[in-house]
Amino acid sequence: MTRKVSYLLSAGLLAAVAAPASAQEQEALLQELAKMRGEMAQMAERMENLESQLAETKTQTETNAAEVKAVAEAEPSNDASIGFKGAPEIKSEGGWSFKPRGRLQYDAGIVDAPDSTGRDDGFGNDVRRARLGVAGDIPGGFGYKFEVDVANSDLTVTDAIISYETGNVDVQVGQFNNFQGLEELTSSLHTSFIERAAFTDAFNFIRRVGVGVTYGEGDVLVQGGVFTDNMDRLSNQNWSANGRVVYMPKIGDAQLHFGGSAHYRSYEDGNTVRYRQRPLVGFTSERFINTGNMDAESESGFGLEGAVIAGSFHAAIEGRWQNLDMPMVADTANFFGGYAEVGYFLTKGDTRGYKGGKFDRTKPANPVGEGGMGSLQLNVRYDRLDLNDGTVIGGTQDGYFASLVWKPTDYTMLLANYGRLEYGDAVFPTVTGNRDYGVDVFAVRAQIDF
What is the pTM of this model? Predict the structure, then answer.
Protein backbone atom coordinates (compact mmCIF):
# COMPACT_ATOMS: atom_id res chain seq x y z
CA MET A 1 0.00 0.00 0.00
CA THR A 2 2.83 2.42 0.81
CA ARG A 3 4.47 1.76 -2.55
CA LYS A 4 1.20 2.52 -4.36
CA VAL A 5 1.02 5.86 -2.60
CA SER A 6 4.62 6.56 -3.64
CA TYR A 7 3.85 5.82 -7.28
CA LEU A 8 0.81 8.08 -7.25
CA LEU A 9 2.77 10.96 -5.77
CA SER A 10 5.52 10.43 -8.34
CA ALA A 11 3.02 10.43 -11.14
CA GLY A 12 1.58 13.68 -9.87
CA LEU A 13 4.98 15.31 -9.75
CA LEU A 14 5.82 14.10 -13.28
CA ALA A 15 2.63 15.64 -14.51
CA ALA A 16 3.64 18.87 -12.87
CA VAL A 17 7.05 18.68 -14.56
CA ALA A 18 5.43 18.07 -17.93
CA ALA A 19 3.52 21.35 -17.64
CA PRO A 20 5.05 24.41 -19.29
CA ALA A 21 7.90 25.72 -17.16
CA SER A 22 11.41 27.08 -17.51
CA ALA A 23 14.40 24.72 -17.66
CA GLN A 24 15.55 25.92 -14.22
CA GLU A 25 12.16 25.25 -12.64
CA GLN A 26 12.01 21.79 -14.17
CA GLU A 27 15.44 20.91 -12.84
CA ALA A 28 14.40 22.01 -9.33
CA LEU A 29 11.22 19.97 -9.49
CA LEU A 30 13.14 16.89 -10.61
CA GLN A 31 15.55 17.22 -7.69
CA GLU A 32 12.63 17.62 -5.26
CA LEU A 33 10.98 14.58 -6.77
CA ALA A 34 14.09 12.47 -6.34
CA LYS A 35 14.39 13.59 -2.68
CA MET A 36 10.76 12.77 -1.94
CA ARG A 37 11.03 9.36 -3.56
CA GLY A 38 14.00 8.55 -1.36
CA GLU A 39 12.12 9.57 1.78
CA MET A 40 9.09 7.59 0.68
CA ALA A 41 11.23 4.50 0.16
CA GLN A 42 12.66 4.85 3.70
CA MET A 43 9.16 5.26 5.12
CA ALA A 44 7.93 2.18 3.27
CA GLU A 45 10.84 0.14 4.64
CA ARG A 46 10.07 1.27 8.21
CA MET A 47 6.39 0.37 7.83
CA GLU A 48 7.33 -3.09 6.56
CA ASN A 49 9.57 -3.55 9.63
CA LEU A 50 6.74 -2.47 11.94
CA GLU A 51 4.32 -4.89 10.27
CA SER A 52 6.83 -7.72 10.74
CA GLN A 53 7.35 -6.86 14.42
CA LEU A 54 3.57 -6.70 14.96
CA ALA A 55 3.14 -10.16 13.44
CA GLU A 56 5.91 -11.57 15.69
CA THR A 57 4.29 -9.98 18.79
CA LYS A 58 0.90 -11.45 17.93
CA THR A 59 2.41 -14.92 17.48
CA GLN A 60 4.27 -14.67 20.83
CA THR A 61 1.10 -13.53 22.62
CA GLU A 62 -0.86 -16.47 21.27
CA THR A 63 1.94 -18.82 22.34
CA ASN A 64 2.05 -17.38 25.86
CA ALA A 65 -1.75 -17.63 26.23
CA ALA A 66 -1.64 -21.28 25.17
CA GLU A 67 1.14 -21.98 27.71
CA VAL A 68 -0.82 -20.27 30.52
CA LYS A 69 -3.94 -22.28 29.66
CA ALA A 70 -1.96 -25.52 29.64
CA VAL A 71 -0.45 -24.75 33.06
CA ALA A 72 -3.85 -23.83 34.49
CA GLU A 73 -5.31 -27.12 33.24
CA ALA A 74 -2.34 -29.18 34.45
CA GLU A 75 -2.09 -27.71 38.01
CA PRO A 76 -5.13 -27.42 40.39
CA SER A 77 -5.92 -23.96 41.65
CA ASN A 78 -5.31 -23.00 45.28
CA ASP A 79 -8.12 -20.48 45.21
CA ALA A 80 -10.62 -20.73 48.08
CA SER A 81 -14.16 -21.97 47.49
CA ILE A 82 -17.21 -20.89 49.47
CA GLY A 83 -20.04 -23.28 50.24
CA PHE A 84 -23.07 -22.94 52.49
CA LYS A 85 -24.09 -25.14 55.45
CA GLY A 86 -26.34 -22.88 57.46
CA ALA A 87 -23.58 -20.25 57.16
CA PRO A 88 -20.76 -19.60 54.66
CA GLU A 89 -18.00 -22.23 54.80
CA ILE A 90 -14.67 -21.30 53.23
CA LYS A 91 -12.38 -24.10 52.02
CA SER A 92 -9.04 -24.08 50.20
CA GLU A 93 -7.21 -26.78 48.26
CA GLY A 94 -4.40 -26.62 50.85
CA GLY A 95 -6.58 -28.10 53.58
CA TRP A 96 -7.72 -24.92 55.34
CA SER A 97 -11.36 -24.33 56.19
CA PHE A 98 -13.29 -21.80 58.24
CA LYS A 99 -16.93 -21.65 59.25
CA PRO A 100 -18.76 -19.36 61.69
CA ARG A 101 -21.29 -21.18 63.85
CA GLY A 102 -23.96 -20.29 66.36
CA ARG A 103 -27.35 -21.05 67.85
CA LEU A 104 -30.17 -19.15 69.51
CA GLN A 105 -32.81 -20.84 71.67
CA TYR A 106 -35.60 -18.91 73.35
CA ASP A 107 -37.86 -20.70 75.86
CA ALA A 108 -41.09 -19.65 77.52
CA GLY A 109 -43.76 -21.43 79.52
CA ILE A 110 -45.59 -22.07 82.77
CA VAL A 111 -44.73 -24.10 85.86
CA ASP A 112 -47.72 -25.00 88.06
CA ALA A 113 -46.85 -26.31 91.56
CA PRO A 114 -49.14 -26.68 94.58
CA ASP A 115 -49.73 -23.21 96.04
CA SER A 116 -49.03 -24.26 99.61
CA THR A 117 -45.44 -25.21 98.79
CA GLY A 118 -44.63 -21.50 98.48
CA ARG A 119 -42.59 -22.05 95.34
CA ASP A 120 -42.06 -19.32 92.75
CA ASP A 121 -43.99 -20.81 89.85
CA GLY A 122 -46.11 -19.37 87.04
CA PHE A 123 -44.87 -17.85 83.78
CA GLY A 124 -41.17 -17.88 82.97
CA ASN A 125 -38.96 -17.28 79.96
CA ASP A 126 -35.28 -17.50 79.18
CA VAL A 127 -32.68 -17.15 76.45
CA ARG A 128 -31.63 -20.74 76.96
CA ARG A 129 -28.61 -20.62 74.68
CA ALA A 130 -27.04 -17.87 72.58
CA ARG A 131 -23.81 -19.23 71.20
CA LEU A 132 -21.28 -17.87 68.73
CA GLY A 133 -18.13 -19.53 67.53
CA VAL A 134 -15.91 -20.74 64.72
CA ALA A 135 -14.73 -24.15 63.55
CA GLY A 136 -12.54 -25.48 60.78
CA ASP A 137 -9.58 -27.54 59.58
CA ILE A 138 -5.85 -26.90 59.42
CA PRO A 139 -3.49 -28.70 56.97
CA GLY A 140 -1.95 -31.86 58.37
CA GLY A 141 -5.08 -33.38 59.88
CA PHE A 142 -5.60 -30.73 62.55
CA GLY A 143 -8.84 -28.96 63.41
CA TYR A 144 -10.25 -26.39 65.78
CA LYS A 145 -13.51 -25.33 67.39
CA PHE A 146 -14.17 -22.42 69.71
CA GLU A 147 -17.59 -21.38 70.97
CA VAL A 148 -18.92 -19.08 73.69
CA ASP A 149 -22.39 -18.68 75.17
CA VAL A 150 -23.64 -15.16 75.88
CA ALA A 151 -27.15 -16.08 77.09
CA ASN A 152 -28.55 -13.71 79.72
CA SER A 153 -25.45 -11.50 79.46
CA ASP A 154 -23.20 -14.18 81.03
CA LEU A 155 -20.13 -15.01 78.95
CA THR A 156 -19.05 -18.64 79.27
CA VAL A 157 -16.82 -20.80 77.12
CA THR A 158 -18.57 -23.95 75.91
CA ASP A 159 -16.20 -25.68 73.46
CA ALA A 160 -12.51 -24.85 73.08
CA ILE A 161 -10.97 -27.72 71.12
CA ILE A 162 -7.81 -28.52 69.18
CA SER A 163 -8.15 -31.83 67.34
CA TYR A 164 -5.99 -34.16 65.29
CA GLU A 165 -7.29 -36.90 63.02
CA THR A 166 -5.27 -39.72 61.52
CA GLY A 167 -6.88 -42.76 59.98
CA ASN A 168 -9.65 -44.01 62.29
CA VAL A 169 -8.37 -42.12 65.35
CA ASP A 170 -9.43 -38.64 66.42
CA VAL A 171 -7.68 -36.89 69.34
CA GLN A 172 -9.17 -33.86 71.09
CA VAL A 173 -7.49 -31.53 73.56
CA GLY A 174 -9.25 -28.69 75.38
CA GLN A 175 -12.75 -28.27 76.82
CA PHE A 176 -15.54 -30.43 75.44
CA ASN A 177 -18.34 -32.79 76.44
CA ASN A 178 -17.12 -35.97 78.14
CA PHE A 179 -18.23 -39.43 77.00
CA GLN A 180 -21.19 -39.92 79.36
CA GLY A 181 -23.82 -41.40 77.03
CA LEU A 182 -26.24 -41.00 74.13
CA GLU A 183 -28.50 -38.33 75.63
CA GLU A 184 -25.68 -36.10 76.86
CA LEU A 185 -23.60 -36.31 73.68
CA THR A 186 -26.56 -35.54 71.41
CA SER A 187 -26.45 -31.81 70.68
CA SER A 188 -29.10 -29.59 72.27
CA LEU A 189 -30.02 -28.70 68.68
CA HIS A 190 -31.19 -32.25 67.99
CA THR A 191 -32.90 -33.40 71.21
CA SER A 192 -36.53 -34.49 71.02
CA PHE A 193 -37.57 -32.62 74.18
CA ILE A 194 -36.91 -29.13 75.49
CA GLU A 195 -34.33 -30.47 77.96
CA ARG A 196 -32.28 -33.62 78.21
CA ALA A 197 -33.14 -36.45 80.61
CA ALA A 198 -33.12 -35.43 84.29
CA PHE A 199 -30.08 -37.50 85.30
CA THR A 200 -27.73 -35.69 82.88
CA ASP A 201 -28.11 -32.43 84.79
CA ALA A 202 -28.58 -33.98 88.25
CA PHE A 203 -25.33 -35.96 88.01
CA ASN A 204 -23.36 -32.88 86.93
CA PHE A 205 -22.59 -33.85 83.33
CA ILE A 206 -20.74 -30.75 82.11
CA ARG A 207 -17.91 -29.90 79.75
CA ARG A 208 -14.47 -30.31 81.27
CA VAL A 209 -10.88 -29.62 80.22
CA GLY A 210 -8.92 -32.70 79.22
CA VAL A 211 -7.81 -35.00 76.43
CA GLY A 212 -10.04 -37.50 74.66
CA VAL A 213 -9.48 -40.16 72.01
CA THR A 214 -12.12 -41.59 69.66
CA TYR A 215 -11.59 -44.69 67.53
CA GLY A 216 -14.17 -45.61 64.95
CA GLU A 217 -14.20 -48.37 62.37
CA GLY A 218 -17.25 -49.81 60.70
CA ASP A 219 -20.03 -50.28 63.24
CA VAL A 220 -17.80 -49.89 66.32
CA LEU A 221 -17.00 -46.70 68.21
CA VAL A 222 -14.66 -46.52 71.23
CA GLN A 223 -14.15 -43.30 73.22
CA GLY A 224 -12.07 -42.49 76.29
CA GLY A 225 -10.50 -39.54 78.05
CA VAL A 226 -9.06 -37.99 81.20
CA PHE A 227 -10.36 -34.63 82.47
CA THR A 228 -10.01 -32.03 85.21
CA ASP A 229 -12.73 -29.37 85.69
CA ASN A 230 -14.68 -26.86 83.65
CA MET A 231 -12.68 -23.81 82.53
CA ASP A 232 -14.48 -21.49 84.95
CA ARG A 233 -13.60 -23.61 88.00
CA LEU A 234 -10.24 -25.21 87.31
CA SER A 235 -8.68 -26.51 90.53
CA ASN A 236 -6.11 -28.90 89.04
CA GLN A 237 -6.89 -31.20 92.00
CA ASN A 238 -10.09 -32.94 90.91
CA TRP A 239 -9.77 -35.35 87.98
CA SER A 240 -12.00 -37.82 86.17
CA ALA A 241 -11.87 -40.57 83.55
CA ASN A 242 -14.64 -41.52 81.12
CA GLY A 243 -15.02 -44.33 78.62
CA ARG A 244 -17.74 -45.34 76.16
CA VAL A 245 -18.24 -48.15 73.65
CA VAL A 246 -20.94 -48.15 70.94
CA TYR A 247 -22.05 -50.80 68.46
CA MET A 248 -24.21 -49.27 65.71
CA PRO A 249 -25.14 -51.77 62.97
CA LYS A 250 -27.73 -51.31 60.25
CA ILE A 251 -30.21 -54.07 59.52
CA GLY A 252 -31.99 -53.29 56.29
CA ASP A 253 -33.16 -49.69 56.57
CA ALA A 254 -33.11 -49.74 60.39
CA GLN A 255 -30.29 -48.06 62.33
CA LEU A 256 -29.56 -49.80 65.65
CA HIS A 257 -27.57 -48.42 68.58
CA PHE A 258 -26.17 -50.28 71.61
CA GLY A 259 -23.77 -48.67 74.04
CA GLY A 260 -22.28 -48.55 77.49
CA SER A 261 -20.23 -46.02 79.41
CA ALA A 262 -18.27 -45.80 82.65
CA HIS A 263 -17.15 -42.85 84.75
CA TYR A 264 -14.85 -42.26 87.71
CA ARG A 265 -14.10 -38.96 89.44
CA SER A 266 -11.74 -38.21 92.32
CA TYR A 267 -12.25 -35.16 94.56
CA GLU A 268 -9.70 -33.30 96.62
CA ASP A 269 -10.19 -33.19 100.38
CA GLY A 270 -12.99 -30.94 101.59
CA ASN A 271 -15.06 -31.11 98.39
CA THR A 272 -18.80 -31.60 98.44
CA VAL A 273 -21.21 -32.90 95.82
CA ARG A 274 -24.88 -32.09 95.36
CA TYR A 275 -27.39 -33.87 93.12
CA ARG A 276 -30.60 -31.98 92.28
CA GLN A 277 -32.92 -31.23 89.36
CA ARG A 278 -35.48 -28.75 88.01
CA PRO A 279 -38.96 -29.75 86.80
CA LEU A 280 -38.16 -30.25 83.08
CA VAL A 281 -37.42 -26.63 82.05
CA GLY A 282 -34.42 -24.39 82.47
CA PHE A 283 -36.23 -21.08 83.05
CA THR A 284 -37.15 -21.95 86.66
CA SER A 285 -34.67 -21.98 89.54
CA GLU A 286 -36.88 -24.27 91.66
CA ARG A 287 -35.63 -27.80 92.33
CA PHE A 288 -38.11 -30.09 94.02
CA ILE A 289 -35.59 -32.91 94.57
CA ASN A 290 -32.21 -32.17 96.11
CA THR A 291 -29.72 -34.22 98.13
CA GLY A 292 -28.07 -31.15 99.61
CA ASN A 293 -24.29 -30.93 99.90
CA MET A 294 -22.57 -34.26 100.63
CA ASP A 295 -18.90 -34.72 101.49
CA ALA A 296 -17.22 -36.59 98.65
CA GLU A 297 -14.04 -38.58 98.13
CA SER A 298 -14.97 -39.97 94.72
CA GLU A 299 -17.87 -40.94 92.52
CA SER A 300 -18.29 -43.64 89.94
CA GLY A 301 -21.03 -44.45 87.51
CA PHE A 302 -21.94 -46.61 84.59
CA GLY A 303 -24.64 -46.39 81.98
CA LEU A 304 -26.38 -48.49 79.34
CA GLU A 305 -28.00 -47.08 76.20
CA GLY A 306 -29.97 -48.36 73.25
CA ALA A 307 -31.85 -46.90 70.31
CA VAL A 308 -33.45 -47.75 66.98
CA ILE A 309 -34.39 -45.60 63.98
CA ALA A 310 -36.64 -47.19 61.37
CA GLY A 311 -38.06 -44.75 58.85
CA SER A 312 -40.48 -42.39 60.61
CA PHE A 313 -40.17 -44.26 63.94
CA HIS A 314 -37.51 -44.04 66.62
CA ALA A 315 -37.11 -45.30 70.17
CA ALA A 316 -34.41 -44.80 72.79
CA ILE A 317 -33.72 -46.03 76.31
CA GLU A 318 -30.93 -45.21 78.72
CA GLY A 319 -30.10 -45.85 82.38
CA ARG A 320 -27.43 -44.41 84.67
CA TRP A 321 -26.28 -45.68 88.07
CA GLN A 322 -24.29 -43.17 90.14
CA ASN A 323 -22.32 -44.16 93.26
CA LEU A 324 -20.85 -41.63 95.71
CA ASP A 325 -18.07 -42.46 98.17
CA MET A 326 -18.30 -40.27 101.26
CA PRO A 327 -15.62 -40.01 103.98
CA MET A 328 -16.49 -41.48 107.37
CA VAL A 329 -19.31 -43.51 105.77
CA ALA A 330 -18.86 -47.24 105.39
CA ASP A 331 -21.14 -47.67 102.37
CA THR A 332 -21.56 -45.63 99.20
CA ALA A 333 -24.74 -43.77 98.32
CA ASN A 334 -26.32 -45.15 95.16
CA PHE A 335 -28.62 -43.15 92.87
CA PHE A 336 -30.35 -43.86 89.57
CA GLY A 337 -31.62 -41.97 86.56
CA GLY A 338 -33.02 -43.11 83.24
CA TYR A 339 -35.60 -42.60 80.49
CA ALA A 340 -37.46 -44.38 77.72
CA GLU A 341 -38.98 -42.63 74.71
CA VAL A 342 -40.62 -43.26 71.37
CA GLY A 343 -41.23 -40.84 68.52
CA TYR A 344 -42.92 -40.78 65.13
CA PHE A 345 -42.85 -38.34 62.20
CA LEU A 346 -46.29 -37.33 60.99
CA THR A 347 -44.85 -36.02 57.72
CA LYS A 348 -44.00 -38.37 54.87
CA GLY A 349 -40.35 -39.18 54.14
CA ASP A 350 -38.87 -37.77 57.36
CA THR A 351 -36.61 -39.63 59.78
CA ARG A 352 -34.49 -38.80 62.80
CA GLY A 353 -30.84 -38.06 62.04
CA TYR A 354 -28.03 -40.24 63.39
CA LYS A 355 -24.26 -39.97 63.04
CA GLY A 356 -21.18 -41.04 64.97
CA GLY A 357 -22.92 -42.79 67.86
CA LYS A 358 -25.49 -40.07 68.62
CA PHE A 359 -28.65 -38.50 67.25
CA ASP A 360 -28.00 -35.87 64.60
CA ARG A 361 -29.82 -33.24 62.56
CA THR A 362 -33.25 -33.97 61.15
CA LYS A 363 -33.46 -32.72 57.56
CA PRO A 364 -37.06 -32.28 56.37
CA ALA A 365 -37.80 -34.10 53.14
CA ASN A 366 -40.08 -31.23 52.03
CA PRO A 367 -38.94 -28.02 53.73
CA VAL A 368 -40.78 -24.73 53.79
CA GLY A 369 -39.68 -22.63 50.84
CA GLU A 370 -39.52 -25.65 48.54
CA GLY A 371 -43.21 -26.41 48.37
CA GLY A 372 -43.48 -28.36 51.64
CA MET A 373 -44.36 -27.77 55.29
CA GLY A 374 -41.17 -29.17 56.86
CA SER A 375 -41.15 -32.10 59.29
CA LEU A 376 -43.55 -32.70 62.18
CA GLN A 377 -42.61 -35.17 64.92
CA LEU A 378 -44.56 -36.42 67.96
CA ASN A 379 -42.63 -37.84 70.95
CA VAL A 380 -43.50 -39.27 74.36
CA ARG A 381 -41.11 -40.05 77.21
CA TYR A 382 -40.98 -41.49 80.71
CA ASP A 383 -38.14 -39.98 82.80
CA ARG A 384 -37.11 -41.34 86.23
CA LEU A 385 -34.72 -39.84 88.78
CA ASP A 386 -34.18 -41.41 92.22
CA LEU A 387 -32.06 -39.48 94.74
CA ASN A 388 -33.00 -41.57 97.78
CA ASP A 389 -30.58 -44.03 99.34
CA GLY A 390 -30.04 -44.92 102.98
CA THR A 391 -29.71 -41.79 105.06
CA VAL A 392 -29.78 -39.57 101.96
CA ILE A 393 -33.36 -38.48 101.15
CA GLY A 394 -33.13 -36.28 98.08
CA GLY A 395 -36.50 -37.29 96.64
CA THR A 396 -37.78 -39.05 93.54
CA GLN A 397 -39.09 -37.60 90.30
CA ASP A 398 -41.19 -39.42 87.71
CA GLY A 399 -41.76 -37.42 84.56
CA TYR A 400 -44.36 -38.09 81.87
CA PHE A 401 -43.64 -35.94 78.82
CA ALA A 402 -45.04 -35.28 75.36
CA SER A 403 -43.50 -33.05 72.70
CA LEU A 404 -44.40 -31.83 69.23
CA VAL A 405 -41.44 -30.76 67.11
CA TRP A 406 -41.86 -28.79 63.88
CA LYS A 407 -38.83 -28.16 61.69
CA PRO A 408 -39.70 -25.84 58.79
CA THR A 409 -36.12 -26.14 57.46
CA ASP A 410 -32.86 -27.88 58.37
CA TYR A 411 -31.77 -25.00 60.61
CA THR A 412 -35.01 -23.82 62.25
CA MET A 413 -37.23 -25.46 64.85
CA LEU A 414 -40.34 -24.79 66.95
CA LEU A 415 -41.05 -27.15 69.86
CA ALA A 416 -43.94 -27.52 72.31
CA ASN A 417 -43.48 -29.68 75.42
CA TYR A 418 -45.88 -30.74 78.18
CA GLY A 419 -44.70 -32.49 81.33
CA ARG A 420 -46.29 -33.95 84.43
CA LEU A 421 -43.80 -34.43 87.29
CA GLU A 422 -44.79 -36.73 90.14
CA TYR A 423 -42.65 -36.20 93.25
CA GLY A 424 -41.97 -38.40 96.24
CA ASP A 425 -40.12 -37.05 99.31
CA ALA A 426 -39.91 -33.61 97.69
CA VAL A 427 -37.76 -31.10 99.57
CA PHE A 428 -40.63 -28.56 99.75
CA PRO A 429 -43.62 -29.79 101.79
CA THR A 430 -47.15 -28.48 101.40
CA VAL A 431 -48.78 -26.63 104.29
CA THR A 432 -50.03 -29.98 105.60
CA GLY A 433 -46.52 -31.48 105.47
CA ASN A 434 -47.19 -33.54 102.35
CA ARG A 435 -44.05 -34.21 100.29
CA ASP A 436 -45.72 -36.33 97.62
CA TYR A 437 -47.44 -34.26 94.92
CA GLY A 438 -47.38 -33.34 91.25
CA VAL A 439 -46.17 -30.36 89.20
CA ASP A 440 -47.35 -29.49 85.67
CA VAL A 441 -45.14 -27.79 83.09
CA PHE A 442 -45.87 -26.44 79.63
CA ALA A 443 -43.12 -24.84 77.56
CA VAL A 444 -42.29 -23.82 74.00
CA ARG A 445 -38.98 -23.19 72.25
CA ALA A 446 -38.00 -21.22 69.16
CA GLN A 447 -34.65 -22.20 67.73
CA ILE A 448 -32.34 -21.25 64.89
CA ASP A 449 -28.74 -22.27 64.21
CA PHE A 450 -26.05 -21.90 61.60
Answer: 0.81
CA distances from 154 to 127, 132, 150, 158, 391 (A): 11, 13, 5, 12, 37
Contact (CB, 8 A) for 235 and 229: yes
Please indicate, yes or no, whether residues 271 and 211 belong to a single structural domain of this protein.
Answer: yes
Statement to judge: residues 63 and 183 lie in one domain: no
Domain containing 444 equals 104-129+171-449
Angle subtended by helix axes 23-74 and 2-18, to nearest 10: 170
* Together in a domain, 6 and 112: no
d(CA 277, CA 291): 10
Question: What total of structural domains would you count in the chain?
Answer: 2
Tell me the C-alpha distance between 47 and 404, whole Å.
86
**114 and 61 in a common domain:** no
Q: Which amino acid is at 430?
A: T
Q: Over the stretch 171-226, which tens digit does the pLDDT of each residue have?
A: 999 999 999 999 999 999 999 999 999 999 999 999 999 999 999 999 999 999 99
64, containing H or E segment:
helix 23-74
As a whole number of angstroms, the distance between CA 229 and CA 208 comes to 5
